[in-house]
Amino acid sequence: MFEMLLFAVLLLLITAQMATSASHVHHLPGFEGPLPFHLETGYVGVGESEEVQLFYYFIPSERNPKEDPLMLWITGGPCCSSLSGLLLEIGPIAFAVEEYKAGQVPKLNLRPWAWTKVCSIIFADLPVETGFSYSKTPNPPRGDYELVHHAHQFLRKWLLEHPEYSSNQVYLGADSYSGITVPPIVQEISNGNERGLDPWINIQGYLLGNPLTTRNDIDYKIELAHRMALVSDELYMSWLKNCIDSPNESSCSRVKDYYKKLSSGINVSNILDPKYCDTWVPPKAIEDSWMRRSLVENFHEHLPPLSCESYPYFLINYWVNYEGVSKAVHARKGSVGKWQRCNDENYVKDIPSSFEYHANLSKKGYRSLIYSGDHDLAIPYFTTQEWIRALNYSIIDDWRPWLSKGQVAGYTRTYANQMTFATVKGAGHLAPEYKPEECFVMFSRWISKKPL
């Protein structure tokens, strides 16, 4: 009897350890000296039998982790590792802008405008089989709804293991394709709170950068192209007539084909960037009208020019697969093969639009920040403004510039549903890549509940 009881206790301890495991990372290959900030990595088991093991990187706020908000960050894609957000956008370290030498580990530097200066952030590899996340069973289901349910489970289990953050205000953050999945996650968290699930999550709202919201978002590239003088008035008027006002399938198809020819030399991630900055992306990804280089899972073996914003996207694959990196971040040996930044194989896009979730969350009074780099042709700011207007809330702070260092950094408008829309002047698809200091100013003001 005693032996059986002892076995049951040991089994429970082992299961609990597998459900959530965390390790402190002191050093990273490519970064000189010990990390000057706290970095925790680990796994959280989700699913009925915790067969899905979700990997995360956690960095407490450098200012006041006891009181500053906590944010769960999910990178877009779909199915791109959250390490993208950490290393390429908003985390405290970034790749050094220098020529990469084959066989050497890419160098890392501190990022002066890290969002972790004012907010604790969990960077989670979602969905399963993204980054270092894996399943103990083969061919796990992967799709929008699975991602939503797993993210919800992940956050509650993570908070159970980190009770010191149980009272912190919680936000979700994401960009690009995750504009589809984050609003449903927030709604599921809210519904779970109302059902009395434990632990209660102090959810306050969410922020989204250049978010995909409906599958129709991509149709409005011609609108932005016209505003940016990339297409003629005649083509624009033909698009309005044949694709919007009185749709005619054959005529609309001809308009779109002509538009593709006119824009074939344009970098859709940022119309100001040279096209050759995207030449290292597989042709199929370039052809996918709303896709961008940051959403692609395979890379050509040659580097883009060092001046390109795309350069770090080459480095990240080589850095993670460099000998010793997976061990340094305490990834479980043998759990994944060669690390890929993005892996959308067998992923089901089964949430067609997140608009209804925005509407529901607005009724519940959650805060939101929706921002757009105004030179993004992949998911134009114009289409984001359209669905925000469709929510039909009154404006309480009308269109005005917001400033960084006394200069116009973009324009903003705030609505009665506590939704703030902001443009980031001169930025592309993932705005913090292009305007890191300005985006930090924008984020730090909003997360502190101050006007932009």
UniProtKB/TrEMBL annotation:
Keyword Signal: yes
GO molecular function, one term: acyltransferase activity, transferring groups other than amino-acyl groups
GO BP annotations, alphabetical order: proteolysis; secondary metabolic process
InterPro entries the record matches: AB_hydrolase_fold, Peptidase_S10
Superkingdom as given in the UniProt entry: Eukaryota
A Pfam family of this chain: Peptidase_S10
Keyword Metal-binding on entry: no
Signal peptide boundaries: 1-21
Similarity field: Belongs to the peptidase S10 family.
Protein name as annotated: Uncharacterized protein
Organism, as annotated: Acacia crassicarpa
